Description:
Mean pLDDT: 85
Strand order of the largest sheet: 10-9-4-5-6-8-2-1-11
Helix content: 25-40%
Distance between the termini: 101 Å
Number of helices: 1
Order of helices and strands: HEEEEEEEEEEE
CATH class of the largest domain: Mainly Beta
CATH architecture of the largest domain: Sandwich
Structural class: alpha+beta
Largest sheet: 9 strands, mixed
Strand content: 35-45%
Radius of gyration: 33 Å
CATH topology of the largest domain: Immunoglobulin-like
Amino acid sequence: MKTSELKNKGETGIGTLIIFIAIVLVAAIAASVLLGTAGSLQQKALTTGKQTQQEVASGIQVISVSATNGQTGSIQYFEVLCKLSAGSDPLALNDTMFNFDTKNSTQQLTYINLSTSASTTQFGAVWVKTGPDYINNYLTVGDIVRLNFTSSTPISQSQTVKMKLIPKRGVIVPIEFVTPDVISTMRVGLYP
């Protein structure tokens, strides 16, 4: 072989090597971008999954709704016995709203940190039973709590009442019932 042919082959080999190195560098950069994006997406998916699980799994179960002082033919003082659904995270009562709707009135109640209070703007809570992980002002698994409040207007017989317990995180609990045809006893069972 002639020297000029060897020189041309050497130049071609160096050019091919430069192209090969460029392809490897571009592939490495693309791989790092893909890995970074995949890691970011995985983190977002884990966060979204955890939030969704809290939304779906967390919730309040209403055991019963009753009213007191029904001897006058109408009721105004309500008690809601409730507990936390199995597998739920502790629920802060300060972050829970309570809507109470009747034919004549609508109330939005917030939690007050006094167990004996029952007003037309706030609801109180009395722990009937505390669970193993009891936290003050929180509803935890194993707790049974009696929420109490006062209707802004007396509710008479055969009236539809709608309630909603709305936690900051978790499932909204709608409750609907019709008051009895005859209200004449001290304690009136309303739900279930």
